[in-house]
Amino acid sequence: MTQPRSAPRPASEPADAGRTAGRATFRAIVPAGGAGTRLWPLSRRTDPKFLHDLTASGRSLLQSTYARLRPLAEGVVVVTGAGHAAKVRSQLPDLPPGDVLAEPSPRDSMAAIALAAEVLRRRHPDEDLVVGSFAADHLIADEPAFTSAVTRAVAAARHDYLVAIGIAPDEPSTAFGYIRVGAGGPVAGVEPVEDFVEKPSPEVVAGYLAAGGYLWNAGMYLCRAERLRELLRRYQPALAAGIEEIAAAWDGPERAEVLERVWPGLPAIAIDHALSEPLSRDGGVAVVPADLGWSDIGDWDAIATALPEPSPVQAPPSGGRGAVRVLGPAGSADRVRAYGAEGSVVVPGEATVVVLGIPGAVVVNTGDAILVTTRDRAQHLKQVVDDLPREGPLR
Predict the structure, then answer these.
(1) How far is CA 324 from CA 8, 41, 93, 266, 301, in A?
(2) Is 132 exposed, middle or buried (0-12, 13-18, 19+ CB in 10 A)?
(3) pLDDT single digits (tens) 240-280
(4) pTM of the model
(5) Which secondary-structure segment (H or E) carries 278?
């Protein structure tokens, strides 16, 4: 196999420098945050999308994520906002309460991941620990492929790489960041990362797909916990110092005081900007290419695609059965009438909803709010929600 273009450590430094003497383990981190504004009015600041069953599976996105990770990891911790911690514990009753880490305010993904990793590192000092971060609100349709990708990523992380799981693109989407893939990775099925590109233009994306060698960045990262601490100290020293101070107090009586004093001053930065982008330029990031049936369920168009076959809602005999996807409890489809509304998605709530002559419609009724739009305008919803009063139940 061709060797990687550069090693994540200087050549003079042993590959296992600083390595914990202990058994090799893998533990998963689930950041559960965000308001999901493009899924308004179902997803709200106080009731975000990861707490909802958005695919008619009978489980919330959070519950599905936990169930997917639990067989692969020796433990799972969830990092969520203080206002969501009680609901997270309620949805995951077999997760030890101490494995739900409540952050007092959003500081973006790097702080959440770093906090969980450092708490785990301190709780398990006798382990050579790999941690992996997997968002609570993503959909994975092919779970065997996910298991295979995580297994390869853990193996690469043990070579002291920061490892991303990259998604094989199936459309020229501009909603995601892209990973440019090199050749000759540390283990089979893993390649070096040449560069990260943040949500390029449609013209650039078309060129990527024509050329090949690009993956969607799904935000799934794995790394040895010791290595992650080392990287944070190198690239984000202020964040590293604050996280280490908080983690040292986390399981003791001073947690609240240290959190209140230190957390608000932490840099708010995503892991992509904090670590993966600068580290990729130093040759320290690898990627596992994977085809997982992945979706970030980012808007109502994505939900319409992810839902099962269209529900058998009533329609006039001349039009056959309405090809409409209905999201809601059992019996919800009985409250939907569709006439010339192929490709629509409806959340009827307690009301009867009639969709007449609007293919690709989106109708969502939550009792206190009603959304009427179309799937091709779904990405614009965030702008509308941003115009709502910042305080109040609609946000």
Answers:
(1) 50, 19, 34, 46, 13
(2) buried
(3) 999 999 999 999 999 999 999 999 999 999 999 999 999 99
(4) 0.90
(5) helix 277-281
